[in-house]
């Protein structure tokens, strides 16, 4: 019997995949937050700024996750699955962000914390769905 760590798809592969996913997440989140804050600074409405930042961060994450974190070839089916997943996630993230902005006290850090809460929730959901559905190998 081959030990779990030696099998493809074992604990070691999962841990490496999680670490790569986290690194991609940091890059995607930096793109997302930077775009969001810049768009707000330039006067875009909250919803437009969040939509634009989500598209920029998601596009970055898709390319890096497909090529590096999950190491799979691109296909129309995978791209469609990714768009469906992230479209659904976008609605969830917008809901979490909206609720957070409504309930958090208004301080200089409120917008960033609301973004971080929504991003964290979306990231957890996305990893599970990307691994089990979109980038399943």
Automatic annotation (TrEMBL):
It is a multi-pass membrane protein. One of its GO terms (biological process) is polysaccharide biosynthetic process. Keywords: Membrane, Transmembrane, Transmembrane helix. Residues 20-135 form the GtrA/DPMS transmembrane domain. InterPro entries: GtrA_CellWall_Glycosyl, GtrA_DPMS_TM. It comes from the Bacteria. The chain crosses the membrane at residues 21-39, 45-64, 84-108, 114-134. One of its GO terms (cellular component) is plasma membrane. The keyword Iron-sulfur does not apply. It is found in: Membrane. PANTHER family: ARABINOGALACTAN BIOSYNTHESIS RECRUITING PROTEIN RV3789, PROPHAGE BACTOPRENOL-LINKED GLUCOSE TRANSLOCASE HOMOLOG. Belongs to the GtrA family. This is Putative flippase GtrA (Transmembrane translocase of bactoprenol-linked glucose). It comes from Blastococcus mobilis.
């Amino acid at each position: 019997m081959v030990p779990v760590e030696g099998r493809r798809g074992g604990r070691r592969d999962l841990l490496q995949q999680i670490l790569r996913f986290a690194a991609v997440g940091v890059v995607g989140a930096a793109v997302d937050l930077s775009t969001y804050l810049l768009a707000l600074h330039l006067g875009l409405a909250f919803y437009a700024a969040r939509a634009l930042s989500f598209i920029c961060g998601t596009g970055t994450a898709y390319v890096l996750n497909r090529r590096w974190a999950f190491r799979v070839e691109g296909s129309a089916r995978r791209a469609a699955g990714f768009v469906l997943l992230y479209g659904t996630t976008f609605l969830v993230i917008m809901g979490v962000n909206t609720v957070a902005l409504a309930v958090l006290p208004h301080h200089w850090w409120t917008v960033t914390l609301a973004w971080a809460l929504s991003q964290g929730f979306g990231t957890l959901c996305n990893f599970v769905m990307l691994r089990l559905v979109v980038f399943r190998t």
